[in-house]
Queue: 2 jobs
Job 1
Amino acid sequence: MDTSEDILKQASPDLVRGPDTIRAAKAARLSPSFISWLQAGPMMLVFLAFFLIPLVFVVIVSFWDYNEYQLLPAFSGRGYTDTFEGCIAQLPDLCTIGRTYVKTLKLCVMVWAITLFIGFWVAYFLAFHVKSKTWQMGLSLLCTIPFWTSNVIRMIAWIPLLGRNGLVNSGLVKSGLINQPLEWLLFSEFSVVLALVHLFTFFMVVPIFNSMVRIDKSLIEAAYDAGATGFQTLVNVIIPLAKPGIVIGSIFVITIVMGDFITIGVMGGQQIASAGKIIETRVNALQFPAAAANAVILLVITFLIITMMSRIVDIKKEL
Amino acid sequence: MTETTRKTGVSRRTLLKSTAGLAGLAAGSGAITGFPYVMSAEPKVLRYLGTAVNEGDDISKQCLKDTGIKIEYITATTDDVTKRVMTQPNSFDVLDTEYFSLKKLVPSGNILALDSKKIKEFDNITPVFTKGETPGGKKIGNQGTAPWKVLYLEGKDSKTFSKTATEFVTLIPTVYNADTLGIRPDIIKRPISSWAELLNPEFKGKASILNIPSIGIMDAAMVVEATGKYKYADKGNMTKEEIDLTMKVMIEAKKAGQFRAFWKDFNESVNLMASGETVIQSMWSPAVTKVRSMGIACTFQPLKEGYRSWASGFCVSKGVSGQKLEWAYEFVNWFLSGYAGAYLNRQGYYSAVLSTAKAHMEPYEWAYWMEGKAAEKDIKAPDGSVLEKAGAVRDGGSYEDRMGGVACWNAVMDENDYMVRKWNEFIAA
């Protein structure tokens, strides 16, 4: 553990003595743990100031009471009890919060599965079929195009495409495939999933691509030499080695979709419940403690999902 | 080395504690109060917080020209305006907000009532605000947060609304309108005369309402009454049972696929209607005008059950005093002096002081917008674009007919908290 001291001792005879070098030597004598704290410090402070402290406030406020126009800093579980209102009385039917989370999780699983499938193959293509680094970079950048537009523009842009009188519907009607325009193309679960996949596949592509380019090509050659088929190589070599990327990408996608309310709102015609939407409605009604309580619930559930995923793959070990 | 690690571990924890403690202390002592109030001698600047309704560039330019007061707009949605008043009362000087939010704003103590004696045109303000009747004497519906219920305070710093006129005015009236359903007559092809049509299965998947719970539920209540299912004592202040009943009707409609989408933003409502995604929906007057100016037929349909109305006005932040307060009075007086009123009238809203607005409008404009007469010439928007061809008549007719037909006002209910929870249930259904 005292390696740096040793290194310094070994190094010091070689140092030419002068004011600068003495200072340098002093600086270098700082304990390595201090240096690592120094390195991690800025990030830690940012994390502390802009994440941990606000989070603590959210948890505290979630246990406050409130009225129409102010927070009442007295302990109250109202934010939580109101949220789970009717959950036992309405059994076997689901209560509002139950239905909301079932819907949110359903969207989440669909988006996750589709982005994983598409993201994996895009990354595979970029990592193994595109040989030039420049092309790999260029093509990855193409994946960011969905981020160039704002949500409002996106909503307005989807109507002419998927709407009742949109391009897709009029195309299908004119070609005689359908008689009536398809209503479920827009303001439906379909359009929500479509928009989320369109946006977030990028978050799958990047980490999986990153894992794949680091796979030693000789491993694949070895598999080939040992007589493995393409499929066997994929399942036994590439997927296990790309696992960290898959898990990181999955964490990105799941956390974003769990908390999303703008895309779900805009593409779902504000008619699809989501965990984020409940928080938004509460905040807009100035019911901050209730909103905070819902935020804590969302955080706990998302955290549980992530914990389960990191049980499957130990990211720290794999990196 | 293990020792060092432990030491740093301790110091890190102490750091965390002391930082949290400091932040708590600062928050507790009121040291964090948003923007500091800076007193400047010149130029005259007022920070104006409000929704986009009144915030025209032309208005601020004309104001600067006439009074030397520079208006800095802070634009937010209705909900965000209220949120900002609650959480950052020092971040604005003049507040432009709706009467229904007063039930939240006044008890917070973050806004200051204005003195009616310092408002030159106060006595000329339309009786819609002061008496609850039109200039022609028609009684206006008083369900919901009607402006005359919350117009006066009992004293300067009072938090109680006065039933009689006092000199302490919560909001100096500026603009208001009567809202109803917008329809696409070219697609519906038959007369529409009742709010009940919003939930008519004929328009399954082609209807929409406003996604602001407190306003959306009022529209829903209009529908429930129109279908004869229930008669409310006060649509703007429902009991829990009434909220349950109203939401039940809405949930059934939603499950049956009645609604295409809910809208929250002006442009969303225009797009839904213009694209034909919806053919009947609650709407705002300028949005209907916008759809029409795109060459698409759209009617702001008067309905037999009446209109749902809203109104807004000016007050100032509690942080405003001295010179700045004088500028605020100067600005409010200017706003009521005609230019701004005419500007708002030309957009399809109504100005609080009719006489001064009339003086700033052409007679043919006044006849079209206010008297419900056929347009003698093309009707133009404030920006000069043609809104209506000569010969057109305003939907719903004259000021008397439209404001006289108001049934209820936008409101915040006593059971607002319960209503919001029910609204979430509605969305999740």
Job 2
Amino acid sequence: MQPFTLRVLARKDVLAGLIFIAVAVFGLWASRNYPIGTALRMSTGYVPRLLCWILLGLGVVIMANGLRATGERAAFAGAQHWRALIFVPGSLLVFAFAMDRLGVVIATVLLVIVGSIAGRELRLLEVVGAAVVLVVLTLVIFIWGLELPIPVWPER
Amino acid sequence: MGDFFSNLALGFGIALTPMNLGYALVGCLVGTLIGVLPGIGPIATVAMLLPITFHLEPVSGLIMLAGIFYGAQYGGSTTAILVNLPGETSSVVTCIDGHQMARQGRAGAALAIAALGSFFAGCFSTALIAMFSPPLAIVGQSFGAPEYFSLLVLGLVAAVVLAHGSVIKAIAMVVLGLLLGLVGTDGNTGAQRFSFDIIILSDGIGFVPLAVGVFGLGEIIANLMAPEQQRTIVQEKISRLWPTMQDFRQAWPAVLRGTALGSILGVLPGGGATLSSFASYVLEKKVARDPSRFGKGAIEGVAGPESANNAGAQTSFIPMLTLGIPGNAVMALMIGALTIHGIQPGPQVMTERPDLFWGMVASMWIGNLMLVIINLPLIGIWVQLLKVPYRLLNLAILLFCAIGVYTVNNSAFEIMLTALFGVLGYVFMKLECEPAPMLLGFILGPLMEENLRRAMRIASGDPMIFIQRPISLGLLIATVLLLLIVALPAIRSKREEAFQEN
């Protein structure tokens, strides 16, 4: 026997069910003080709490399906290259932080650097080339072309 | 009938202005450009390019968006035939015979038949939209709150039933979407819900971060994390583009069948391109005199599904434009775009903004024509594009997502939200939870709550109103029937079979 709990937990349906249950419980907790009202005059909490209870029920059923299932259906079986899961969203976060203060040019360069860590092979020359091309494209399309009101350079 | 022509004349008058023609062309080009990339389908493409269209006039923006959508659809077929990697689920079946044809040196014929079949289907279904939208909108206008609520329920349930994968997970995703749609200020009482004192959240979760994150970013993460796939681009030069007479003889009945099937399936909630192309492939195999040819380069296997998916993609505009109800994720994105342009989707669009409605319908036909022109002679360029390594393309896509999201509200917070939804989108993809029903729930959530509350006020709190009104009752009976049908074991296995054709 393999360690039982972990393998069962990694099943797609079990994991999905758990996520839905977690969201529902969190929603019920967050809406604990919302006035519910009556069916005639529904107040703020009526629909949200109703939906949370439905989601909770669905989550339980989905998880039960997963626990009962016989075939092994591990969730992240084929996934490799876990770097991407961190550095793809990471590149957006860096861009977001840089955008307001440093402007779109520096933010673009930062996004390219962080984003290329997410890829498989890192070639310095390619990254530099991509950064230059993308900065030029950004300036041409968004700043001169569409004339979007976004900061271009760092504010003084 | 006189109306039909004067309406179309109005539409073409708007769609044929040089500016709108330009936007349609740019949309088709950019859509094809991104749609050609393997692993990025029309939903992701439309989601990523949405923000750019917000800076245009509503009519131009929607024309461009529609162009992007068809472009992405066509681009996906090109990739399916030449690389054997479907860029989108609706091209999965095109891969089967299309790529075999390409390996036999008939890539040109496959591409040409796909383009011409799609063009025929596009012309036919555009005419359908022009004919059937006005009467449907009149029906829609007679709906009160109870009817509208029941219609929304039917739409959501049908979308779930016709989506692939587990039905119960799809329902859970709809509910999750409905909940996400509630975040922000309650329209009725002005109270805050689930906004956790974050000021930006009091306006609700942005539609753009959600869509771009879950569909665009989620796909990029999934592509980068998947094991390296063999990209076998067909190397031979595409010398003969024009199909032979025999190709035409075999293809045209399939094109007709595909167009008819797609036009019907597209109107159904949850229908659209994917369902149409799968159904058409199954049909072609059934009616073929020698089914063993399929999978070995049968031209009907390309002609049928490609016509069907284009017809389905087009007619799925009918419920969106006339009732304000999106049948699939791309239409949900269209609804979101309309709302951001300040247009309340629904039956009144046609009467209040005839320019917008008919301009868009006319531009659909123009877009289809442009795509044939763009795709066939320029096919060499798209093939070259497939040789650019993905690690460089994904940087460009990431950047355009980031800038696009930022420009909607000049908000860095929304980029962060996009990153969060991207991770979520990837996780859901891996857990086989379809994100499309979630997006539908998110878009329809506020509408549903509003109509539920109004209906309850009309009926003084008595939920029986939904079954006392005949139209509402009929819609709810249809909903229950649909749910019962999926629950039947015989149909369930058939449904799974239909979605696993390869």
